[in-house]
Amino acid sequence: MKMQHSFIRTLKAEFIKIKRSNIRTLALILGALLPVVFVVVNLFTADYATGLVAQHTRYFESLFNNLLEALTGFFLPLLIIITASKIAQLDHKNKGWQLMETQPVTKFSIYFSKFLILVYTVIIALTIFTLTVLLLGWVYTVFIAINENYTMEIPWNYLGYALFRIFIASLAVVALQYVISVRIANFIWSLVLGFGMLLSQLFLAEFNFNMRWFPYNSLFVSGENPTGGQLGRFLLKGESLSLIYAALFLFIGYNWYRFKGFLNAFVKKPVRLATALVTLAIAGALSYTLIKTVQLEPTEKTVIKGTITADRPIKQVYLIDELTADTLMTMSVVKNRFRAVYTKPLPANTYILQYENYSQQRLFMSAKDSIQIVFSFLDGNANQEVTGTRITENLKSASYSDGSFSYINYRLDENMSLENTDYYSEGIIEEYNDDLADLASKVSVDHIVAREDYLDMSRAIIAVKYAQIWKAYLMKKELYLPNLKVKPSTEIQSLLAQVNMNNEALLTNPKYVDYITAALMADTNVESTVTPLERIAALKPSSFKDKWLFTNLLTALKLETVNGKRDSVLNRFKGSFSNNRFVELANVATLNLNKLNTGEPAIDFAAVDKNGKTYTLAGFKGSYVLIDTWASWCAPCKFQEPFYVRKFEKYKKDNIVFISVNIDARENKWHEDLVIMNQKIRQLRPKNIDSYTAAYGINAIPRFMLFNKDGTILDASFTMPSDKNFDELLELKLGLKNKI
Amino acid sequence: MEHIIKTTDLNFYYGKKNHIVKDLNIKVPTGSIYGFLGPNGAGKSTTMQLLSAVLPDYTGDIMLFEKSLQDHTPAVFNKIGALVESPALYLHLTGTENLKYICTLKSLDYSEIEPVLKTVGLENKGDLKAKKYSLGMKQRLAIAMALLGNPELLFLDEPVNGLDPVGITEMRELLVKLNKEQGITIFISSHLLSEIEKMCTHVGIIHHGILQFEGTMEALRNLKQKHQVTLTTANSARALEVLSNAAYEVSLLTTDKIQILLKDKEDIPAMVRFLTLEQIGIYELRSEDGLENWFLSLTK
Fold first, then answer.
1. According to the model, what pLDDT value does residue A1 have?
2. Which chain A residues touch B13 with a CB distance below 8 Å?
3. Residue B218 has pLDDT above 90, yes or no
């Protein structure tokens, strides 16, 4: 009878033992510390939660998330390390182990009741943390006015799920520290080991070095991802791993304790050895499957589907090719959902998903991918989350643009140490390898790595970036040190060999285009007047040539300022395409550019003001006209507004009319916004929005257009008022003397 | 139940080579005060730990209450109180809280605390933190913890370690009282022969892991009866000669000291009279227990 309750008795006795040991107090303090400090500091600075947020943002959820990483990354592990040591020390110091072992309780009860006390303190800390967040968060709102878009509902489900998962993730650390603290009687060593591991975790995380197998890592990852993973599993892989580790550590720790010696516990008797090996094997196998990275398999069909949450109707989603700006597929949105199958070939590349005309998002995919989108557009803020078979490739941190800073490039720009070839070649190779390592370490929270096609493409982009720097170095060397002989090292040679000169997918990358164009021109005579366009046009017909020619042609067309010259450029090269589609696209582009060229007559349109009175653009002839095209859902437009008003005030004495044209689909929205808009600027709305936007090729806002007194276009895409060059350019166009 | 503790061919190794306990056959009669004696390092503490199931992995048999130890641990601890080395107490808790701790582990009612405090003489000291206790009080508290639940068997490992003479006497009197009044069998290990002699009914002597002797106190005394007397005389040479002729066992220590081995303490007056009659002056007479000598010889 008594044996069955051995565990309960031991546990109750442990609660007596921890009286006056400050164990509970420490848990309370470390749990409450973060929210208390955060809220108190912010009560004085009044910074938090006063800025603009998306509508319906849950206040308590965002406060919780803000503080969570610090809790799981530092304070919770700290608590675990100290408390584990304290709990074990209570018995190490007082010969408690022998005392307990001569009582009518099992060794199992002794070992695990103390373990449960440690678990209990973790639960206290997490609970106190949450309650303090709720309480002090509420107190904060009593004193400080937070943004009205917040909702105050308490997200119990969210909190419960996040806390549960964090608790599970902490178990590996709890078990490990407990086992160490019981094993090592010297409390200093158990603290040192614990802190050592915690600090290594923090440092490695700083350098984005992800040690998925490390016991402290799961806690860290769960804190960064309170909403869980992207594969729809209940627990993250790291959390399941934590459970396996906890079981393994406790198995080792308990048996070591029970049999009083490592060899005794695991080696001496065959049964024990066998059990140990089997346990290790099972734990090892399970851990391996959880730790290893996974690549997602392609599916049979190419499917794009998604759900949309928006505060305005989005009826169409477009899949667009980045290079040609061609719409590949139009998807209809029904009841906020869309799904479409793409049957044509689709090479792996970055495409554009356009939602009505509200937002453009990048999407990496290929044929035979199943892409799931969750898109939200609230208050002008767009957010796209991609899951399905291309998770890691579409992670926001994963995009391989060449935007990251290169120190070597900076030195080159400054012309430093040009004579030191080794410095440059080694520096380039080093940064190149760093970028490659960084790419290789990109893993999603569910341990998914990108597929080979994406990795190949990213590696290619990285190779181009550094090959480009080397070429730039060579050019500078020619210029400044023409007598210096340079022999590229083997690494540089292999870097240059990496750059595939025929990679179609990379043609959307301007650096790549520049690189191959420069390579093409490299062997021309200095005196020759041959242009890149001519060289490209002369190449053998291929899909690659078409795309290359097209990008360069588009740039050339844009650079022309006279319609006639533009037409002749088009005519010269349109015969060099093998795919007629490109000719069509080039034609359209030329037409649009011509239409909006300076000096072309402005296409007239009719618009009404808030009282219904009609105006036409032609009606403003005799004055210069500046039009700002905007909508209430466009956050950058709202950003420009105060600048626009300021410019209006500055130039209102001059012969220029400032107009704001609203293209919101819903008229009532415009009326609502009008209340706060500046009334001295003409607030108009086109009678036919679609023909207005088509006429002026408005596919992105804000857009500023300047018209001449005589009703011709001065600049169909004028500088933003926030730009510091605005005044100078405007005065130039208007022929004004410099104003102060 | 004749023997409350019985071991058969008990062997224990520490690591592979250290043979700490060798073929130990201990029999502790129920109701006795059994002194387990041996010099430091003889294997006393290890044997204690084996008997109290703290150390596993031995060969041989240990029977407690005539049942194999492995068959009824840890439930058997309901009938056992154990005091290991210097007292195991939680210093941050009060005396009473320490006792509550044991009560919880043994499923005892807290009402048992008061009587047991009274038994050890700590009635009013229960609410002091254990770290404020003197060493003697700590020992007594530890005994109190061991006494909770009216155990039939007490294991005491060096219970008088560090106590002053008054404390030692008090402890001895308490243990004798517990044995006589409540019939508790007490298994004490110690390296102090004098204490064992004064208190125990039975003795087991261990050295180098081997049981050198086991039996009643009487038997031990009878076995090593020799009583040693050291004399400082006026004329050692003559004394030597005279005593030898009278068939006494005698040896010369120094020029003026001789040593005589007598069968019993009672023979001393007779010997003194004999020497006086022989005109041999005695300056100093020192009497030593042969038992102690024999015991000391064990440590060599």
1. 43
2. none
3. no
> Hey, are the CB atoms on A260 and B55 less than 8 Å from each other?
yes
Q: Between β-strands A656-662 and A682-686, what pairing exists: parallel, antiparallel or unpaired?
A: parallel
Contact B182, B216 (CB under 8 A): no
The minimal CB distance from A16 to the residues B77, B78, B97 is found for: B97
pTM: 0.77
Q: What is the pLDDT of residues A48-102, one digit of tens each?
A: 888 777 667 889 999 999 999 999 999 999 999 999 999 999 999 888 898 998 8
Give the pLDDT score at A176.
Answer: 96
If you average pLDDT over every residue of chain B, what do you get?
Answer: 84
Q: What is the DSSP string of A466-485?
A: HHHHHHHHHHHHHHH-TT--
A489 touches chain B (CB under 8 A): no
Q: Which residues of chain A have pLDDT under 50?
A: 1, 3
pLDDT of residue A13: 93
Domain B3-223 in this protein, CATH class? alpha beta
Domain residue extents for chain B: 3-223, 227-298
Name chain B contacts of A17, Cβ cutoff 8 Å: 90, 93, 101
**Residue A394 DSSP one-character state:** G
Beta carbons of B104 and A21 less than 8 Å apart: no
Q: Kindly give, in sequence order, each residue whose CB lies less than 8 Å from that of residue A660, ignoring residues fewer than 6 positions away.
A: A627, A628, A630, A644, A677, A681, A682, A683, A684
Collect all residues of chain A within an 8 Å Cβ-Cβ radius of residue B74: 3, 6, 103-107
Q: Residue B105 is nearest to which of A19, A104, A107, comparing CB atoms?
A: A104
Instruction: Give the Cα separation of A38 and A313 in Å (integer).
Output: 39
> Which residues of B have a CB under 8 Å from any CB of A?
49, 52-57, 74-78, 80, 82, 84-93, 97, 100-102, 104-107, 145, 155
Contact A96 B54 (CB under 8 A): no
Q: Using alpha carbons, list the distances in angstroms from residue B232 to A461, B227, B262, B263, B275.
A: 108, 17, 16, 20, 12
Architecture of domain B227-298: 2-Layer Sandwich (3.30)
Residue with token string 């500055």? A650
Three-state SS at B1? coil
Q: What is the pLDDT of residue B126?
A: 87
Whether A24 has its CB under 8 Å from any CB of chain B: the answer is no
B15-71 per-position pLDDT tens digit: 777 888 888 888 999 999 999 888 777 788 888 888 888 887 788 889 999 888 888
